[in-house]
Amino acid sequence: MENKQIVITQFGEPEVLAIQSAEVPTPQPGEVLVKVAFAGVNPIDVKTRAGLGWAASQNKDKLPWVPGYDISGQVVACGEGCERFNAGQNVAGFIGFPLQGGGYSQYVCVPESELSLVPDSITLEAAAALPLAGQTAVQALDKGGVKEGQRVLILAGAGGVGHIAVQVAVAAKAEVFTTCSDVNLDYMATLGAHAINYKFSPVSERVTDADVLIDLVGGDAALDALKCLKDGATVVTIPTLSAELICEKAKLLGFEATGMLVDPNPQQLDTLIYMVSVGLLKTEIFKVYPMDKAVEAHHQIETGHTRGKVLLDMQC
Ligand SMILES: NC(=O)c1ccc[n+]([C@@H]2O[C@H](COP(=O)([O-])OP(=O)(O)OC[C@H]3O[C@@H](n4cnc5c(N)ncnc54)[C@H](OP(=O)(O)O)[C@@H]3O)[C@@H](O)[C@H]2O)c1
């Protein structure tokens, strides 16, 4: 049996991605072997491939390296002592984060404790869209202490993290404001948010008295959004590059402010899967690329204008 994997051969443009053939791994005690159906593509994969950030510096001597943290697929074998899953069950997980990666593989061994069951009522595509982005969304809203009735401003509501954050905040009965470009205004409105076209005017001219800011853009957009907040508001800034600057400025203005690094949590993924299965949450899949088009998938994420998620089909 062949195990094709997409590897970063050296740091650089998307064209440095290549397909390599590896052995199908054998599950160790407590691990299951997953035949991956879909792998999610996240901005961190793209940054690491470009040689930027912590995962790149930690893995620079380990190239070729297999990126990828989001998988969905089927359990095909169980290591000794496995009790949660049987061969034939569908699972999803947020795996190998942040240093190991490995999701862009046709077969991968994962400790069963890191996986969630995917019931028949949700597709494997939807399940692969949820792990990293969905947990970032939930953890950001938790850190922001978002509650019923609060005014919550989410920058970049149409992206992988944003489209889930908007829906979870709406489900929590917050009043949600979000920024997007003109093409996503209707989409954001259908999710229940007040949509603001950031290309038309700065968000600070359109929103006042927000209790919580969830910043998924960083830089100048985040600095402008601080003007939308009421006294004592909370800021959660997600892009790591500008987090220090935004937090410093926010604290000077008297806000509570924090950056964050998402922390894999299978119970949270169970909840997100449940929400999709009962129709409380809808994943938006921008495009599924066959695994031999991973270069195009990375180019798409680099546009910065993906609606929802990009996936790789690892079955072809
Ligand atoms: N710290 C962590 O643990 C962590 C975890 C996950 C993600 N992140 C970071 O969080 C950020 C968001 O991640 P993601 O996966 O959601 O990215 P993404 O899916 O690539 O985001 C794309 C979205 O951003 C929107 N956008 C671009 N520029 C915008 C602007 N100036 N104002 C408002 N919206 C804008 C686009 O909407 P339009 O097309 O309408 O412009 C598009 O829908 C990335 O920087 C990522 O690296 C950090």
From TrEMBL:
It comes from the Bacteria. GO terms for molecular function: oxidoreductase activity. Residues 12-312 form the Enoyl reductase (ER) domain. PANTHER family: ALCOHOL DEHYDROGENASE RELATED, RETICULON-4-INTERACTING PROTEIN 1, MITOCHONDRIAL. This is NADPH:quinone reductase.
